[in-house]
Design goal:
About 5% of the residues lie in helices and about 35% in strands. The protein is mainly beta. Among the domains are: about 5-135, 3-Layer(aba) Sandwich (Pathogenesis-related Protein p14a); about 775-959, Serralysin-like metalloprotease, C-terminal (Alkaline Protease, subunit P, domain 1). A hairpin with a 4-residue loop joins β90 (about 925-930) and β91 (about 935-945).
């Protein structure tokens, strides 16, 4: 037969046994289920298909309703090809889904169907077709109403409606989708299974949702609502309520009053409403909205969405990646663990990020933001905010007002934006931007990069090596500790490097750069800058503009570059270069090197031994103290050595060199130079050009060099050498040695016992006061001894020699010379050639030497020796009695000069009284002149020895 009741009963018995084996109750056989199962088995066999959807499109549920089985729940399995009940049950047990259907805990009835198609010739030919159904009948709804006494009601498994009474009731919905209402008392409501609706009404109610998706409404009074399983909706309504969503995805609405909401497990929505509420999302991804009042909101685990609304709220994200937005009042936001997004909105909020990288917005008004741990991004937004990154590498942005931004630990990025902000980097290597307006930027620990941006900023680098850029505005920048890089950029900036070796650049406009401690590098760049090196070995570069460079302590290098710069080396050994422009350089202490460069510069060496170089153009160089080396360079320069043993070199141009005190060395070089040794034993060399050399006080050495030079020895025992060309040399006071050198020179001895040497050309030598030695040298020279007992040597060529005052010695030398002893007891020697010798006043000794000489004794009893050649002895009527030696009769002549022709000469050997000629002897020949009018005789000369009568001297009488 097609069906087999025995097989049906065996299948039901085998399934029940398996349920008992796993601890489940057996199911009762239901004829409606058996009928529906047999109909579907036959349908599959006869219509050649295998599916839970019938041949006519029926479903298991429609088939159950078709046989009159109203179900609350059901399960269906089908099979084909198994020949026995044991085989088919085992097949279902082997399939996980079908096994779960057999072991369903919420079913009560069972029915099975079997159909055998022996001649199975279709596309699907299993022969044996099986169906099993398990179900629970639907219950019938009831309505229960309470009395005025305390009631305990329990609904059926159907969809019941239960009303409490006037007293304290306990109401259970049981199974089904129930509606439970408590009334005006302290009721306990429990929905149990089904999608229930529970209303607590008035007073303090306790409401449990139970299984499935329930709606719990507390009503008036302090209610306690627990959603339990299922996606529940809880509303506390009025009163101070406690709401707990428990499992699954719940919606909790606090209502009015100070309520406590806990989402529990699942993805919950918590609404705070009116009053000071406490919201706790629990596990899951929750949405929490605080509502009005001072609320406390905790997200719990999961990625939560939290909103604060009105009132002073405390919002805590807890675990998970949360999004938190505060309301309009004073709120506190705590991100907790996870990557959170936090927004303060309106009000003066306090926002703390938590342990992971957070995104934080302060919103409007004055907020306090702290990123805490993690690499956070913080925006102060509108209002005067305090923003601190905390630990981690944070990004901090200030907003539009006066903010305080603190990086904290980690390598942070901080931007102030608008407003007068205070930015502090904290620990780590930070990047800090001041933004617009006047900011205070503090790098603190770490190697920071700081940009003041716009506004008049104050910037402090603090510890380690920082890079600081002032940006626009008049900034004050201090590097403090570490090897810092400070750049002022635009504006009139003040840069202070602080400790260690720093690098400073002023940028545009007029800046002040202070290296402070350490070996610093300072560059003024554009504008009129002030650069102060401070302590350490500093390098200062002025750039364009009229700059001031102050080296301070340490061995500094100062470069003026363009503009009219002022360079002050300060203490220690400094190197200064004025560069272009009219500069002022002063070395101060230490052994300094100063170079003016281009432009008309003023250079002062300062204390100790300095090196000065004027460079191009007309410069003023002052060595001051110490043994200085001063080079004029190009241009018409002024060089002054001041104290110390200085070396001054003029260079190109008409230079003025003043050695001042000390034993100085002055060199003129090219150009018409003026050299003054000043006090001390100085050495002056004129070089090329028409130079003026003045030795000053002290024993000086002056050399004119090439050009028509003027040399003045001054006081002291000086040595003067005119060098090449026609020079003028004045010895001054002291025992001087003066050499004309090449050229027709003028030598003037001055005071003291001087030694003059005219050189090779036609020189003019003047002895001055003192016992001088004058050697005219080669050339037709003019020599005058002046006062003192002088020794004069005409040298080669025809010279004109005048002894002047004092007992002088004159030697004509080679050439046709003119010798004039002038005053004093002089000794004259004509030397070679035809010389003219005049003794002058005093007792003179005159020797003509070789050549045809003319000897005139002048006033005084002189001794005249003609020497070789035809000599002329010139006698005057009132010149005294001269002694003529080596007179050669026939060659030599005696010329007597008288005022008129009223005299005649007389030559005789008659002795005269001793007082007439003290040195005469009776054997001498007397040369007399006789006045004709009264025969008055005047003795003019004596010729030693008796001349023969036949050999008389030739005497010319000139009147």
């Amino acid at each position: 037969m097609p069906t087999n009741p025995q097989f049906v009963n065996q299948v039901i018995a085998l399934v029940n046994q398996e349920r008992v084996n796993v601890g489940l109750p057996p199911l009762s056989a239901d004829s409606h289920l058996i009928l529906a199962a047999e109909q579907h088995s036959q349908d599959m066999a006869e219509n050649d298909f295998f599916s839970q959807i019938g041949f006519n499109g029926s479903t298991p549920g429609s088939r159950l309703r078709g046989v009159g089985y109203q179900f609350a729940t059901f399960e269906e399995n089908i099979a084909a090809g198994q020949a026995t009940p044991e085989e088919v049950v085992q097949t279902w047990l082997n399939d996980p889904g079908e096994r779960d259907n057999l072991f369903a805990p919420n079913v009560q009835n069972i029915g099975a169907g079997y159909f055998l198609l022996e001649d199975d010739f279709g596309n699907f030919n299993p022969n044996h077709y099986w169906t099993i159904l398990l179900g629970t009948r639907a219950a019938q709804s009831v309505v229960i109403r309470g009395t005025n006494n305390p009631n305990i009601f329990q609904g059926s498994v159907a969809d019941d409606t239960i009303f409490g009474g006037a007293n304290n009731d306990t109401l259970f919905g049981n199974g089904g989708n129930d509606s439970v209402l408590g009334s005006n008392s302290n009721d306990i409501l429990q929905g149990n299974a089904g999608d229930d609706t529970l209303f607590g009404e008035n007073e303090a109610d306790t409401i449990f949702g139970g299984q499935n998706n329930d709606f719990l409404f507390g009503g008036n009074g302090a209610d306690s609502l627990l959603g339990s399983k299922g996606g529940d909706r809880l509303s506390g309504d009025a009163g101070n309520d406690t709401l707990d969503g428990d499992e699954d995805n719940d919606i909790l609405d606090a209502g009015s009053g100070d309520d406590s909401l806990a989402g529990g497990l699942g993805e919950d929505i918590l609404l705070g409403s009116i009053g000071d509420d406490t919201l706790d999302g629990g596990n899951g991804i929750d949405t929490l909205i605080a509502g009005e009042g001072a609320d406390s909101v905790t997200g719990g685990k999961g990625d939560d969405l939290i909103a604060g609304n009105a009132g002073n709220d405390i919002l805590f994200g807890n675990d998970g990646n949360d999004q938190i937005e505060a309301g309009d009042d004073f709120d506190i936001i705590l991100g907790g663990k996870g990557v959170d997004t936090l927004l303060g909105n309106r009000g003066n909020d306090i926002i703390l990020g938590g342990t992971e990288p957070d995104l934080i917005f302060g919103g409007k008004d004055a907020d306090s933001l702290l990123g805490q741990q993690g690499d956070d991004i913080l925006f102060g937004d509108i209002g005067e905010d305090t923003v601190e990154g905390g630990e981690g590498n944070d990004q901090i942005f200030g907003g539009d007002n006066n903010d305080e931004l603190i990086g904290g630990q980690g390598n942070d990025t901080i931007a102030g934006n608008r407003g007068n902000d205070t930015l502090t980097g904290g620990e780590g290597d930070d990047l800090i931007f001041g933004g617009k307006d006047d900011d205070l930027l503090l790098g603190e620990a770490g190697a920071d990069t700081i940009l003041g941006d716009k506004g008049d900023d104050r910037i402090f680098g603090n510890q380690e090596s920082d890079s600081i850029f002032g940006g626009e505005g008049n900034d004050v920048i201090t590097g403090e500790d570490g090897e810092d890089t400070l750049i002022g950029n635009q504006g009139n900036d003040i840069l202070n490097g602080g400790k260690d070796s720093d690098f400073l650049i002023g940028g545009k406009d007029s800046d002040t750069l202070i290296g402070d401690l350490g070996n610093d590098t300072l560059t003024g760049d554009l504008g009129d800058d002030i650069l102060e090196g401070g302590d350490g070995e500093d390098s200062l570069q002025a750039g364009e503009g009229n700059d001031q460079l102050l080296g301070g302590l340490g061995r500094d290098t100062l470069n003026g570059d363009k503009g009219a710069d002022f360079l002050d080396g300060g203490a220690d050994d400094d190197v200064l270069d004025g560069g272009e422009g009219n500069d002022v350089l002063t070395g101060q202490g230490g052994e300094d090197s100063l170079t003016g460069g281009e432009g008309s510069d003023e250079i002062q060496g300062g204390a100790e031994d300095d090196f000065l170089d004027g460079g191009d153009d007309s410069d003023r160089l002052f060595g001051q103290e110490g043994n200085d080396t001063i080079n004029a360079g190009e241009g018409n320069d002024l060089l002054e050595g001041a104290s110390g043993d200085d070396q001054l070199t003029a260079g190109d141009g008409a230079d003025t060199l003043d050695g001042s005190t000390g034993d100085d060395i002055l060199a003129g070089d090219a150009g018409d130079d003026s050299l003054d040794g000043g006090a001390g034993a100085d050495a002056l060399t004129g070089g090329a050009g028409e130079d003026t050399l003045t030795g000053g006080t002290g024993d000086d050495n002056l050399t004119g060099g090439t050009g028509e030079d003027t040399l003045t020895g001054g006081t002291g025992d000086d040595q003067l050498d005119g060098g090449a060309d026609e020079d003028s040399l004045l010895g001054g006071a002291g025992n001087d040695t003066i050499t004309g050198g090449e050229g027709a020179d003028t030598l003037i001895a001055g005071d003291g016992n001087d030694n003059l040497d005219g050189g090779t050309q036609a020189d003019t030598l003047t002895g001055g006061a003192g016992n001088d030695t004058l050697n005219a040298g080669a050339g037709e020279d003019t020599v005058e001894g002046n006062e003192g007992n002088d020794v004069i040597d005409g040298g080669a060529d025809s010279d004109n020699l005048v002894g002047g005052g004092g007992n002088d010695t004159l030697t004509g030398g080679d050439g046709v010379d003119v010798l004039n002893g002038d005053e004093g007891d002089d000794v004259l020697d004509g030397g070679g050639q035809n010389d003219r010798l005049l003794g002058g006043s005093g007792v003179d000794i005159i020797t003509g030497g070789t050549g045809n000489d003319t000897l005139t004794g002048g006033a005084g009893n002189d001794t005249l020796t003609g020497g070789d050649g035809r000599d002329v002895f010139s006698l005057g009527i009132s010149d005294g009695v001269d002694r003529i030696e080596n007179f050669e009769a026939g060659l030599d002549r005696i010329r007597i000069s008288v005022s008129d022709n009223l005299f005649q000469e007389s030559i005789q050997n008659a002795p005269l009284p001793p007082d007439a000629a003290p040195d005469a002897t009776p054997t001498d020949t007397m040369i007399e002149i006789v006045r004709i009018a009264d025969n008055e005789r005047t003795l003019l000369a004596i010729l030693p020895g008796v001349l023969p009568a036949a050999v008389e001297p030739t005497v010319e009488l000139i009147g």
